[in-house]
Amino acid sequence: MVSAVTVLATAAGPEPAAAGPMSVAASPLDWSLVDGTLPVVLRVLGLASLAFLLITRDRRWWTRWLPAALVLAALLTFLVKVIVNDWWQPFPDELPFEVLFWIGILLLALLLALFKLRFLRWRGRVGALFAALCVVLYASNQVNIYYDNFPTVRTMLGPQDTVSLKDATGTKEPVLEVPPGRTIEDVWRPPKDLPAKGTVSQTPIPGTKSGFKAQTAYVYLPPAYRASPRPLLPVLVLLPGQPGAPENWITSGELPTMMDAFAAEHRGLAPIVVVADNLGSPFDNPLCVDGKLGKVQTYLSEDVPNWVAAHLQAATDRAQWAISGLSNGGTCSLQTAVNAPQRYGRFIDISGEAEPSVGSHQQTVDSVFGGDEAAFRKVNPLDVMARQKFPDTAGVFVAGTEDSTYRPQAKVVYDAARKAGMDVRLMELPGAHNWSVWRPGLEKNLPWLARQTRLIP
């Protein structure tokens, strides 16, 4: 029987580990970049510095140089918009007005400092350059706040505290027996020396069969993986958005903190998470298909599971394997779930599209499928679900309440999944197409995933 549950999460998503006002005892690396004291300090310094750069007593400044800086900054901002949104198109979405505004402020500060150097002595010039730097930091962090990309200073430094996969996996251990009809937590008895936290390892996952040249993957192993007998834990394959890389889930997504918190609530139990690549490089978009940019579908449905089987002791039942991702990765997670249902029985599509796309529908068919509409329909999730039933597949669709582009598309695929016999639900979270939705979009669904994969009752 299909259950269709629509969930509207009215509470804000989880705050970063160091969110809120700066604590004297906290490390500067854990100061929040999105709320609390540091953004306020940057705002005060930025606005004061911008005022310093704007104001001078020289009449020529007001009649000649300031207008020139304003006009040139506006023209350069417009050029950025044209290059990024119309020519280069490295992102699936256009740069929004708010981001372009802060890019304009950044460019204006640099131009004001450059033009003002002629009116100042060396001390004043140093001050003007410092003021420009303050405005650049302020404007850059405003863009960061919009995307919620780096919640803390530490996340800007890349993945921290990784260990080698060999050290993380240890030796092969006897397997914990779980009787039919029971969950792992029902029979799990954690040893006294169980670590409090899991491990994160950086590792290549080669495209042995697909030939796909993937970016470096990351593997999270929960504390329970270090026990003997070892439980065969469910596996979550997690995908980044485009542009992006697997490490984004480790840094911006704060995955280790998220999973360790879940494990702490369940005596060390949590899914194994394999943060794999579906892009090839940060700006590529192979559409999660076996195409000219690589056989991504084969990579995710065969190479990644085969690698897990060869390197980890983990569950093998499709009902205990899930795939998830954000934006482009969300689209890919649904694609993989319907095109490789023999491998993945669960999915969490976070801010994904209604269909894989590199622009318009026709542009996608022409550029990726050689103009073959039938080839597109063969792998497009909406078409697959229209002709095939999935009574043994369960999933969640997540979208931001302020995401005017992807929220309507989430409703379309949710309805199609219901009609295809899936056990699905739709979750709407406060926020737009950014990490304020993507991070809690995974965290809030971990209990659902753990129950679906027979980890917990």
UniProtKB/TrEMBL annotation:
SUPFAM superfamilies according to UniProt: alpha/beta-Hydrolases
Keywords: Hydrolase, Membrane, Transmembrane, Transmembrane helix
Transmembrane stretches, start-end: 36-55, 62-83, 95-115, 127-147
GO molecular function: acyltransferase activity, transferring groups other than amino-acyl groups; hydrolase activity
InterPro entries linked to this entry: AB_hydrolase_fold, Esterase-like, Mycobacterial_A85_antigen
Keyword Magnesium recorded: no
Protein's UniProt name: S-formylglutathione hydrolase FrmB
